[in-house]
Amino acid sequence: MATTEENLNEAFAGESRANRKYLAFAKKADDDGFPEVARLFRAAAEAETVHAMAHLRQLKAVKSTAENLEAARAGETYEYAEMYPPMVEVAEAENSPAALTFRYALAAEERHASLYAKALEAVKAGRDVETGGVYVCPVCGNVVFGKPTAPCEICSTAADKFVEIQ
Ligand SMILES: [Fe+2]
Ligand SMILES: [Fe+2]
Protein backbone atom coordinates (compact mmCIF):
# COMPACT_ATOMS: atom_id res chain seq x y z
CA MET A 1 0.00 0.00 0.00
CA ALA A 2 1.22 3.48 -0.86
CA THR A 3 2.38 5.80 1.92
CA THR A 4 0.67 9.13 2.56
CA GLU A 5 3.70 10.89 1.11
CA GLU A 6 3.37 8.89 -2.12
CA ASN A 7 -0.36 9.58 -2.18
CA LEU A 8 0.23 13.31 -1.69
CA ASN A 9 2.71 13.33 -4.58
CA GLU A 10 0.28 11.49 -6.84
CA ALA A 11 -2.66 13.68 -5.80
CA PHE A 12 -0.59 16.84 -6.32
CA ALA A 13 0.36 15.69 -9.84
CA GLY A 14 -3.24 14.78 -10.70
CA GLU A 15 -4.74 18.03 -9.40
CA SER A 16 -2.06 20.06 -11.19
CA ARG A 17 -2.81 18.26 -14.46
CA ALA A 18 -6.56 18.76 -14.01
CA ASN A 19 -6.00 22.50 -13.46
CA ARG A 20 -4.24 22.97 -16.81
CA LYS A 21 -6.62 20.66 -18.64
CA TYR A 22 -9.72 22.47 -17.35
CA LEU A 23 -8.27 25.84 -18.37
CA ALA A 24 -7.78 24.45 -21.89
CA PHE A 25 -11.35 23.08 -21.81
CA ALA A 26 -12.60 26.52 -20.66
CA LYS A 27 -10.92 28.19 -23.62
CA LYS A 28 -12.56 25.69 -25.98
CA ALA A 29 -16.00 26.21 -24.36
CA ASP A 30 -15.57 30.00 -24.79
CA ASP A 31 -14.57 29.50 -28.44
CA ASP A 32 -17.62 27.26 -28.94
CA GLY A 33 -19.99 29.91 -27.51
CA PHE A 34 -20.64 28.34 -24.08
CA PRO A 35 -19.40 31.04 -21.67
CA GLU A 36 -21.14 29.54 -18.62
CA VAL A 37 -19.60 26.12 -19.30
CA ALA A 38 -16.28 27.95 -19.61
CA ARG A 39 -16.93 29.54 -16.21
CA LEU A 40 -17.64 26.13 -14.67
CA PHE A 41 -14.35 24.78 -16.07
CA ARG A 42 -12.45 27.79 -14.74
CA ALA A 43 -14.07 27.40 -11.31
CA ALA A 44 -13.15 23.70 -11.20
CA ALA A 45 -9.61 24.59 -12.35
CA GLU A 46 -9.33 27.06 -9.46
CA ALA A 47 -10.65 24.42 -7.05
CA GLU A 48 -8.06 21.90 -8.27
CA THR A 49 -5.40 24.54 -7.58
CA VAL A 50 -6.70 24.84 -4.00
CA HIS A 51 -6.34 21.05 -3.64
CA ALA A 52 -2.91 20.97 -5.27
CA MET A 53 -1.61 23.74 -2.98
CA ALA A 54 -3.03 21.97 0.10
CA HIS A 55 -1.25 18.73 -0.89
CA LEU A 56 1.96 20.67 -1.54
CA ARG A 57 1.76 22.22 1.94
CA GLN A 58 1.36 18.75 3.44
CA LEU A 59 4.45 17.64 1.50
CA LYS A 60 6.38 20.62 2.96
CA ALA A 61 7.77 21.14 -0.55
CA VAL A 62 7.95 24.93 -0.27
CA LYS A 63 11.16 25.91 1.52
CA SER A 64 13.36 29.01 1.58
CA THR A 65 13.57 30.93 -1.70
CA ALA A 66 17.19 29.86 -2.12
CA GLU A 67 16.20 26.20 -1.64
CA ASN A 68 13.22 26.62 -3.95
CA LEU A 69 15.43 28.15 -6.66
CA GLU A 70 17.85 25.25 -6.31
CA ALA A 71 15.01 22.72 -6.56
CA ALA A 72 13.59 24.55 -9.59
CA ARG A 73 17.02 24.69 -11.27
CA ALA A 74 17.52 20.97 -10.65
CA GLY A 75 14.06 20.16 -12.02
CA GLU A 76 14.60 22.15 -15.21
CA THR A 77 18.04 20.60 -15.66
CA TYR A 78 16.61 17.10 -15.34
CA GLU A 79 13.97 17.98 -17.95
CA TYR A 80 16.32 19.35 -20.59
CA ALA A 81 19.24 17.00 -19.94
CA GLU A 82 17.49 13.69 -19.26
CA MET A 83 13.74 13.77 -19.77
CA TYR A 84 13.25 15.48 -23.12
CA PRO A 85 16.14 14.14 -25.28
CA PRO A 86 14.76 10.57 -25.50
CA MET A 87 11.24 11.97 -25.96
CA VAL A 88 12.44 14.00 -28.96
CA GLU A 89 14.16 10.91 -30.33
CA VAL A 90 11.06 8.71 -30.10
CA ALA A 91 8.81 11.42 -31.55
CA GLU A 92 11.19 11.87 -34.49
CA ALA A 93 11.31 8.11 -35.07
CA GLU A 94 7.50 8.09 -35.12
CA ASN A 95 7.36 11.16 -37.37
CA SER A 96 5.20 12.74 -34.68
CA PRO A 97 4.62 16.51 -34.70
CA ALA A 98 5.19 16.32 -30.93
CA ALA A 99 8.92 16.27 -31.74
CA LEU A 100 8.70 20.05 -32.19
CA THR A 101 6.77 20.52 -28.92
CA PHE A 102 9.41 18.50 -27.08
CA ARG A 103 12.29 20.35 -28.78
CA TYR A 104 10.80 23.72 -27.86
CA ALA A 105 10.33 22.63 -24.26
CA LEU A 106 13.83 21.18 -24.07
CA ALA A 107 15.42 24.41 -25.32
CA ALA A 108 13.23 26.56 -23.06
CA GLU A 109 13.93 24.46 -19.94
CA GLU A 110 17.66 24.92 -20.49
CA ARG A 111 17.17 28.70 -20.41
CA HIS A 112 14.88 28.45 -17.38
CA ALA A 113 17.61 26.53 -15.54
CA SER A 114 20.18 29.21 -16.28
CA LEU A 115 17.83 32.02 -15.19
CA TYR A 116 17.16 30.16 -11.94
CA ALA A 117 20.91 29.78 -11.44
CA LYS A 118 21.32 33.52 -11.95
CA ALA A 119 18.51 34.27 -9.49
CA LEU A 120 19.99 31.85 -6.96
CA GLU A 121 23.34 33.64 -7.14
CA ALA A 122 21.62 36.96 -6.33
CA VAL A 123 19.49 35.55 -3.49
CA LYS A 124 22.54 33.86 -1.93
CA ALA A 125 24.21 37.31 -1.98
CA GLY A 126 21.18 38.67 -0.11
CA ARG A 127 19.57 40.61 -2.96
CA ASP A 128 16.77 40.21 -5.49
CA VAL A 129 17.70 39.28 -9.05
CA GLU A 130 17.87 42.15 -11.55
CA THR A 131 15.76 41.36 -14.60
CA GLY A 132 14.82 44.54 -16.43
CA GLY A 133 11.42 42.91 -16.92
CA VAL A 134 10.56 39.23 -17.45
CA TYR A 135 9.02 38.10 -20.75
CA VAL A 136 7.69 34.74 -21.98
CA CYS A 137 7.46 33.52 -25.56
CA PRO A 138 3.84 32.35 -26.02
CA VAL A 139 4.87 29.74 -28.60
CA CYS A 140 7.84 27.89 -27.07
CA GLY A 141 7.94 29.04 -23.44
CA ASN A 142 11.30 30.76 -23.71
CA VAL A 143 11.81 33.19 -20.80
CA VAL A 144 14.02 36.25 -21.16
CA PHE A 145 15.10 39.07 -18.89
CA GLY A 146 14.60 42.50 -20.46
CA LYS A 147 12.15 43.54 -23.18
CA PRO A 148 12.94 41.45 -26.29
CA THR A 149 14.14 43.39 -29.31
CA ALA A 150 14.79 40.39 -31.58
CA PRO A 151 12.74 37.31 -32.52
CA CYS A 152 12.71 34.36 -30.10
CA GLU A 153 16.04 32.54 -30.25
CA ILE A 154 14.24 29.21 -29.98
CA CYS A 155 11.22 29.51 -32.26
CA SER A 156 11.60 32.85 -34.12
CA THR A 157 8.35 34.32 -32.74
CA ALA A 158 8.39 38.11 -33.14
CA ALA A 159 9.72 40.18 -30.21
CA ASP A 160 6.42 42.06 -29.77
CA LYS A 161 4.52 38.81 -29.20
CA PHE A 162 6.36 38.07 -25.94
CA VAL A 163 4.13 38.36 -22.86
CA GLU A 164 5.38 40.50 -19.97
CA ILE A 165 5.06 38.84 -16.56
CA GLN A 166 4.10 40.99 -13.56
FE1 LIG B 1 10.77 25.24 -17.39
FE1 LIG C 1 9.79 31.07 -28.66
Task: Give the % helix.
Answer: 55-70%
H-E order: HHHHEEE
Number of domains: 3
Distance between the ends: 43 Å
β content, as a range? 5-15%
Q: Give me the count of strands.
A: 3
Counted by DSSP, the helix tally is 4
Extract low-pLDDT stretches: none
Rounded Rg? 18 Å
* Overall pLDDT: 98
Taking the sheet with the most strands, its summary is: 3 strands, antiparallel
Major beta sheet, strand line-up: 2-1-3
| Cα shape | globular
List the helices and strands and how they pair.
Layout: H1 4-31, H2 35-59, H3 65-93, H4 98-124, E1 134-136, E2 143-145, E3 163-165
Antiparallel strand pairs: 1-2, 1-3
One fe (ii) ion (FE2) binds near residues 76, 108 and 112.
Word description of this protein:
The structure is a single chain. 16% of the residues are buried. The protein has four helices and three strands. A three-stranded antiparallel beta sheet has the order 2-1-3. The model has no long low-confidence stretch (mean pLDDT 98). With 166 residues, the protein is mostly helical. It has helices spanning 4-31, 35-59, 65-93, 98-124; strands at 134-136, 143-145, 163-165. α1 runs antiparallel to α2 (35-59) and α3 runs antiparallel to α4 (98-124). The structure holds fe (ii) ion (2 copies). One fe (ii) ion binds next to loops. The site of one fe (ii) ion (FE2) has 8 residues, from loops.
